[in-house]
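idk why but the lab printer keeps eating my pages so im just putting this in chat instead. protein + S-adenosylmethionine:
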Amino acid sequence: MRASVGFLLAIAALPAFSQNPRAYSNKLAPYVASPTRVVDLMLEMAKIKPGETVYDLGSGDGRIVIAAAGKYKAKAVGVEISPKLVASATADIERAGLSADARVMQGDILQTDFTGADVVTLYLETKLNGELRPHLEKFLKPGARVVSHDYPVPGWKPTRVEKVEGRVMHTVYLYEIQPPKK
Ligand SMILES: C[S@@+](CC[C@H](N)C(=O)[O-])C[C@H]1O[C@@H](n2cnc3c(N)ncnc32)[C@H](O)[C@@H]1O
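predcted complex ->
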């Protein structure tokens, strides 16, 4: 009985997928995980306060989401296009006992409403950061921070830039959303 209910639900979901198959195929950056030292530096530079909302756009295996919820007591959300990475990140979140504060959703970052984010973390590419910039300017409020691993946001001036040595040198850019000019 359970199997047949699951099967019916899966069939019911099919039309939505077939009407919009591109919703799951817009992979705009490869999967490369940020090393732990870089994750630590990104979250430290963002000065996250407990209870703040952190979005990792293109969240990979969920390591930033897990660190933000686990070490900084943030409400952490990952957005990831790859169903496999969403599944493994969700399993890791459950294993870490962080399901109340952390989640990863499958979706396209260019189609995602991240209103309410206090902090956004990125490890994408400069061109994609450029495409994302109007969305960041639309959804983020003054005081929000954007931290980007290795790739700057074109047209924005970072308030802090730090380097961390690993197998290669990594750069982290911090941006702070300013109130609109009067
Ligand atoms: C370089 S990895 C960064 C992973 C993680 N944020 C980190 O720093 O460890 C970029 C991730 O973005 C995801 N991605 C690429 N295009 C995407 C899109 N349009 N929407 C959501 N995720 C996307 C990739 O699948 C990949 O996992």
